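Human: Cast an eye over this sequence-structure pair and say how the chain folds.
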Amino acid sequence: MSEPIVEARAIEKSYPQPDGTRIQVVGLTDFSIEPGKIIALLGASGCGKSTLLRILSGLSQPSSGAIFWHGKPLGGESPNVAIVFQSFALFPWLTVLENVEAPLEARGVAAVERRKRALRTLDTVGLDGFETAYPKELSGGMKQRVGFARALVVEPEVLFMDEPFSALDVLTAENLRGELLELWLNKKMPTSAIFIVTHNIEEAVILADRIVVLGRNPARIRSDFNVKLSQPRDRKSGRFVELVDYIYKVMTEPDVEHALPDPESTGEIVMPPGGLKRTESPIRTSKYQILPHARVGGIAGLVELLHDRGGREDLFRLSEELVMDVEDLLPILEACQLLGFAWLKEGDVQLSRQGVRFADGDIQARKVLFREAALEHVTILKQIDSILKRKSDHSINDEFFHDILDEHFSEEEVQRQFDTAMNWGRYAEIFDYDRESGRLVQTEVVQAETVQTEPAPAEHTVENQNSTPTPKA
């Protein structure tokens, strides 16, 4: 095997918390980027894909472990890499040509030389004739082509791409994938390896020579295998479909170890789930339930769709027909599983009995069922409900729950967790929330019924707190 360009040895990334614990974003991991390959990194939203990219590219330092560039420790020097971002990240006050020249100017390349290289690169990516245009004049696809050109003009040894097609419409994204592959296969790119972070499973199987799937909390390698399919690849071929289905299962069933189908017949190298193991003790981390970032409308929509299809559907087919990437569909599916409305088995999504009741219910009945499920399965909502019942004024400041979440999640994740909890709790009428005052208040109907039902036995259900009876399945 060729010597790796980039090699990560026992790296991990964590962030200290006020209570002395650390939030571990990337678990102990070994990783390498070899020349001559397109490597795709897949994983659910928030699993640490972009964090790993930043560490491998030298933008961020790992909390422990080391990064090696051609076998030598990466110190203060910058490796010969470039990055294409999801958001284009163009300078709006510069023309297309000036945007592409910018990294060369930063490296001290003479004006004549950088102009020549920028023009040549723009021609390579199909932007000849747009040199004097400004970003505001360009479509999304053309803006990303400028991003490609700006990355390639420095002739990077490794080209890193962070969700480069996710901000584009389906047809434009497909076109750019094809153009990227054409440049790579015809050796028109001055780069030895491409590392692409994506949430699109088909995109990974179409482009990559090697696919790595990450688990989360913290990020760890669950599967790492070479794709032995010739280019161009047929989406309808049996092996293509097998690989897509396998990756779906790995991503949607994190507690199950899946074997890559028939690895011997293709010569594929498969790493054990969890990646390379090391004997070092993992950093102590706080454990707390993570809510999937799904809105009530999405949860209800998926339940209704499954109900219309007889209560069961293949996840891959569902994703295709909804024209949704796995990153968009997975949080909704995880929410349905958490609430007990559905479960996933061998790639099929199936409604539970509660899910059928929810689909059959009217507006008020659904609220009752959602409330029951939330108070049974969702830790943060159980805490909020319990505290509000015990407070004399049945209200509390939202900072209290931010402080609880702060002990377990990063600042960005705290806000997402809180927003999701507010969306679910308000829909279920567990509480009202005034964002301006920052206070959560138990709903009036629940307050009144709490007083009325205090002597009642524990078996008294939430269904009795609503005037609309829950329909039977």
